[in-house]
Amino acid sequence: ILLEYAKNDREIKADLRLRLGNLKDVAESARKLIRVDLRKYTKSGFIDYHDMRHAVEGMYKVLNMVCGGAYDAVMRIRLCVVVLEEITGILGSCDDSNGEVCDIIYSATNRISKTIEENSERVEIFDIVFNHACAGFYDNWIDWRLDLLTTLVPLCGNADLRKKLTAYLSCGLECGDGDAENILYAIIKRFDGECAGETYVNSHLYNRSFRKTAIETAMSREQYELALSLCTDGEKADKNNGNLIIWKEYRYKIYEKQGMREGMRELGREFVLIGKYDIGFDYFKKLKPLYSAEEWDTVRDSLISAIENAPKGPYSYGFYSHRDMYIKILIHEKLKENLLIYCQKNPRDLEDLYRNLLPDYKNEISQIFEPYIFSQAEQASDRSSYQKVCITIQHSAKACGIEFAKPIIQTLYEKYRKKPAFLDELSQALK
């Protein structure tokens, strides 16, 4: 029955050949299965976004088979390499907006890594992966090449294989590929011991990941002076780029470990004023316990003033860069008056913030909403923008009551009676 189906369906035929065929032909059968789907969904030499998942279905089937126990380690590696060869072959002729290519490369590389880790005595695996990783395709995708070469680390207990991989990586270092050092470090640490690994790290501190490792090692040993020195050297090296903050955050942690409040205060204020929302507000909250209640009001007001008057620069849009954090601070500190002033200057944000102003400033909220709604209406020109006006009206009704919103709707009815789509939306605004 299966053979009858296979006669009329290439995909079934390729699948059966892979699952039931001669073990010697497994890799080639896997390639044929993959290509059946690729050809099926390739139109005019290109795979469309909507077809990508179906086009790579054969690759997922092969990767799932790798997870089973049907094949030995060498064959599992060969199958993964077949998948990698086929997926990299279509990279320039498909719309990969949904990330299928990256997912498959990541999955295949992970399966290679797991297989090698479980079979580190199978030295014949080395050349299969090494030769593929050295293929010209990866010249433009160095990170993927390095990921593949990293999987070979467990095999470097063999002196000849270690020499071969180390020689290749050292050539990469001469070409400015610093990430290769991380693989060399993994080899040294695994086979020469922690002490040798630490020596390698300390002699390559220009590598940021090594500097992080050195700082964390020093901190774990409570060698705080050494850790601080490593941080300040990192700050000097990265003073003109975005990595500067990495070393300052480490420095803050060291101050925290030592209870150095003044150092924590200084860096905490600096982090708040940098304008990066993801860390600024966190450090604002950390600052508060470092001051007495009497001191805090002055410090907080000084920070808020500095944010409000933040200058524009090559990497900053002034206050705009701090806006989200600024709002969060005002809400956290219950500074409603400051928040009201902000909303008066930025009425479009009132829809998200009015709840934080109630009930104290209900009248002031209405005075912001009314002119803002009329201004929105003047600029509205299609049903989508009419709907946005009505959403603002709904917010105003929630904030100030339906009786506040009704006269506004009536005024808009009279003013825009020649816009039936707008009138239709207004009729439903308070329902």
Put the structure in a nutshell.
With 431 residues, this protein is mainly alpha-helical.
Q: For the largest beta sheet, what order do the strands appear in spatially?
A: 1-2
Number of helices: 25
Instruction: State the helical fraction.
Output: over 70%
Which radius of gyration do the C-alpha atoms yield? 31 Å
Q: What gap, in angstroms, lies between the N and C termini?
A: 63 Å
Principal-axis shape: flat
What portion of the residues fall into strands of 2 or more residues?
Answer: under 5%
> Biggest sheet, open or closed, and with what strands and sense?
2 strands, antiparallel
Kindly state the number of beta strands. 2
How does the helix and strand content classify structurally? Answer: mainly alpha
Q: What is the residue-averaged pLDDT? A: 90
Note the run of SSEs as H and E. HHHHHHHHHHHHHHHHHHEEHHHHHHH
* Contiguous uncertain segments of 5+ residues: 1-7
